[in-house]
Amino acid sequence: MKKFGTAIILAGGKSFRMGFDKQFLQISEKRLMEDIISHLETEFEDIVVVTNKPEEYQNFSYRITSDIYKDVGPLGGVHAGLSISNSKFAFVVACDMPKLNMDYIRYMKNILDEDKLGIATRIGEYIEPFSAFYSIEMIGYIERYIDSGQRSITKFLGQMDIDLVEEKTVKEYSPNLDIFLNLNTKEDLDNYMAYIDNKYK
Prior knowledge:
Elements: E1 6-10, E2 26-27, E3 30-31, H1 32-40, E4 46-50, E5 63-65, H2 74-83, E6 89-94, H3 102-111, E7 118-123, E8 126-135, H4 139-147, H5 153-159, E9 163-166, H6 167-170, H7 186-199
Parallel strand pairs: 1-4, 1-6, 4-5, 7-9
Antiparallel strand pairs: 2-3, 6-8, 7-8
Helix pairs in contact: 2-4
C-alpha cells in the first residue's frame, strides 16, 4: 500500500448553525466542494467524500461513502473515509474549509514519520483535527473510542501517537491561520464573501 494518495472530504455535518447543508455551499456561483476537490486532485489521486446524502452525488466522478457510525460527529466521518482509503495515510479536510494550502500539505507529507499514526497542527494547546493526515491504523482505535461513548475528535487525537506541527511553523505558510477557517455560520460566510469581494476589486 502506498504511503499517500487518498484525501477525505467530510461532508456529513448537520449544519445547524449555517441554516442549510454546507456540503452544497456555493462561493461566487461555484460549489465550494468542487473548488476543494480541484486543489486536492493536484496532490492526491484518490478523493473520497463522506456524506449523509450519497444520493446527491450519483453523477460524481469521485468515491462516495457514508458514516458507519451514525451521529457521532466528525470522528465517524474520518472512520468511514479511512475504512476505504487506498493509502496508509489519508489527508482529511471538511467541506466548509475554503483556504487549503497545498504547500503546507506537502510540508506535512515530507516530515511525517511513517511509524506515527498521523500528523496534525497544534495551535496553543488545541490540536486542529482538519488539514491533517490520519493513518488507517487508527481505525481500530477510533472504533474502541466511539464504542466507549466518546466523540471528541480533538481529545482522541490527543491520545494518539501523532506528529504535531507547532503554531510557529504553520504560520510560515498561513500567517493568520486561515487555512483552518471553517464556514460554520452565516456570519462566517458573509465575512468570507466580503474578503473575496475585496480581493478581486
